Amino acid sequence: MLNNSQSSIFGSDIVIGLSSVHDGNMRFASGDEGEVCDNRIRFLGQLDIDPTQATLVQVSYEDTTDFTRYHVADDENLGEGMLAPFSDLHADALTVTRPDHALFLPLADCIGAVIYDVEAKIMMMTHLGRHSVEQMGAIKSVQYLIDEFGSDVRDLRVWLSPSVGGDSYPLHKFNDRSLQDVVCDQFEQAGIGLEQIELSNIDTADDDNYFSHSEYLAGNQMSDGRFAIVAMMRD
Fold it and tell me: Which of 27, 34, 132, 190 is an S-S bond match for 226, by CB 3.0 to 4.6 Å?
């Protein structure tokens, strides 16, 4: 079930796909490799995207204390991590600079943010979970676009995925506020107004259409699967 194929904040410039549990698990570490490949192919096919057009945003918590690692994905990265359970490109965010190069991010409670420079035509997909947010990940994502590409914050638009709510996952280092509240606050600190942000009202801990890692750990979900977001600039 494809939940979103278009985002009002981006107009027709970017296509966004959001999977649900009905599309199956989207992370290799949480399920059978062949099944995950089939799920990804089928999900992407609904948007006429081939896995060879996409790059996985491979978030890793191993052997690092830096959760704000950002890179540019170029043509050499096309297909990387999409149909095999490994990728050498570990990053908390990837940026693409041309159309028809999709970015793919599995999620289960954390926020996946798509940031688009409407003038420079540059798209970033950044993973904003507790670890990255504690390191001011939303602010650093915006600053990366400014430093690397000369982006003007007035030209940036942001789409935020469904995420876990504050009732079941309060951020203790931020006075028990919700992940979405803290992320929006960080984007505002970076100079992006709320009118430039499209929010989701879906709480993954309360909505059975989405995998939730926190609900799995609490014993309320049988599977520790992942849904996914995919975004691609159109030509």
Answer: 27
Q: Are 116 and 13 in contact (CB under 8 A)?
A: yes
Q: What is the average per-residue pLDDT within 51-58?
A: 97
Domain assignment of residue 9, yes or no:
no
Residue 207 pLDDT > 60: yes
Q: Which CATH number do you get for residue 182?
A: 3.60.140.10
Range of the domain at 78: 14-233
User: What is the C-alpha separation between 182 and 87, in angstroms, rounded?
Assistant: 30
In a domain, 1, yes or no: no
Amino acid at 217: L
Asked if residue 2 is part of any domain, the answer here is: no
Query: CA 93, CA 180: separation in Å to the nearest integer?
Result: 18
Look at residue 55 in the predicted model and tell me its pLDDT.
97
Residue 65 clears pLDDT 90, i.e. is over it: yes
> How far apart are the C-alpha atoms of 24 and 39, rounded to whole Å?
6
pLDDT for 46 beyond 80: yes
Number of domain units in the chain? 1
- Distance in angstroms (rounded) separating the CA atoms of residues 68 and 128: 9
